[in-house]
C-alpha cells in the first residue's frame, strides 16, 4: 500500500500540469476566435451592408429619437438582443456607444459594430456588471448615448435585466425603447431567435422615450417588470 505523503510532490506537479494545459487550451480557443474574427468581420460587414441597403424602413414615433433643448440628456437605447441587426443598421454612425459582452463570443459583433460606426463598452448588464455599469454611467454623464440589450448576452430572451435601468437612474437619463419587426425574415435557432430581415422587405421600427423616475438604484432595479411590459407593448405596435 502506498503512503499518502509519498505522492505529494507528484500530485502537485500533476495538478500544476493540468492547470497549465487548461490555460493553454483557453489561450488556443481565444486565438482561434481572433483568427476567425479577422476574416468573418469584413465578410459579415459587407453582407450586412448589401442586405440592409435593400430594406424599406418605416419608423413609428420618430420624434422620440430627437434630442431637443440646448443640453439634451443622453439616452439609453434599449433593444432586445434578437432584434439587434436592423436596429444597429438604422442607427449606424451616430456616435452611440453600445454594450457588448467581453466574452470572446462578443468579439465578432463588437468588430462589426465598430465597422458600422459604433464605439463599444465591453461587459455585461447582468452577471459581473459592476465595471460595465460604472462605464455606462460615466459615458451617459459625458452626454453620449449608449445602447443596451437588457436580455443579453445569453438570455433568457425578452427578460429585462436591471443594468440599463440602474445606469440610467444614476446618470439621470431616460430609456429610449426600440422594437423592430420585419414583414419577411429569417430566424436563427439561437436562444434569442436572431432576426435577419429578408432582402427588400419592409422593416418597421417603433420608439418610445421613457424616463426612469426611480429615486435610487434599488428602486430602478425594481422597475424591470414595468419596462419589460413596455417593450412587449411596443413590439405589438411595430408588428401591427
Describe the protein's architecture and organization.
Residues 1-5 have low confidence and may be disordered. It contains seven helices and nine strands; from the N terminus they run αββαβαβαβαββββαα. It is globular. The chain has helices spanning 8-52, 84-90, 107-115, 130-141, 163-171, 217-221, 224-239, and strands at 56-60, 76-78, 97-100, 119-122, 146-148, 175-182, 185-187, 195-197, 202-210. Helix content is 43%, strand content 18%. Helix 1 (8-52) runs parallel beside helix 3 (107-115). The strands form two sheets. A seven-stranded mixed beta sheet has the order 1-9-6-2-5-3-4, sandwiched between helices. It is of the alpha/beta class and 240 residues long. Strand 3 (97-100), helix 3 and strand 4 (119-122) form a beta-alpha-beta unit.
Amino acid at each position: 500500500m502506498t503512503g499518502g505523503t509519498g505522492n505529494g510532490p507528484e500530485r502537485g506537479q500533476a495538478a500544476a500540469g493540468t492547470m497549465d494545459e487548461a490555460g493553454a487550451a483557453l489561450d488556443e480557443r481565444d486565438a482561434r476566435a481572433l483568427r476567425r474574427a479577422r476574416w468573418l468581420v469584413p465578410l459579415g460587414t459587407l453582407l450586412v451592408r448589401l442586405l440592409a441597403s435593400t430594406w424599406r424602413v418605416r419608423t413609428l414615433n420618430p420624434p422620440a429619437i430627437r434630442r431637443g433643448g440646448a443640453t439634451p440628456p443622453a439616452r439609453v437605447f434599449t433593444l432586445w438582443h434578437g432584434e439587434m441587426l436592423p436596429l444597429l443598421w438604422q442607427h449606424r454612425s451616430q456616435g452611440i456607444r453600445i454594450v457588448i459582452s467581453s466574452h470572446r463570443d462578443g468579439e465578432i459583433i463588437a468588430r462589426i459594430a465598430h465597422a458600422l460606426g459604433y464605439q463599444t463598452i465591453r461587459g455585461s448588464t447582468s452577471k459581473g456588471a459592476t465595471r460595465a455599469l460604472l462605464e455606462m454611467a460615466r459615458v451617459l454623464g459625458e452626454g453620449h448615448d449608449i445602447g443596451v440589450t437588457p436580455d443579453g448576452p445569453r438570455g433568457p430572451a425578452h427578460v429585462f435585466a436591471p443594468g440599463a435601468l440602474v445606469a440610467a437612474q444614476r446618470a439621470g437619463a431616460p430609456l429610449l425603447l426600440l422594437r423592430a419587426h420585419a414583414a419577411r425574415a429569417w430566424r436563427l435557432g439561437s436562444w434569442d431567435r436572431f432576426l435577419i430581415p429578408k432582402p427588400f422587405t419592409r422593416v418597421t421600427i417603433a420608439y418610445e422615450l421613457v424616463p426612469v423616475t426611480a429615486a435610487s438604484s434599488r428602486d430602478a432595479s425594481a422597475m424591470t417588470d414595468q419596462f419589460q411590459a413596455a417593450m412587449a407593448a411596443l413590439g405589438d405596435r411595430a408588428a401591427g
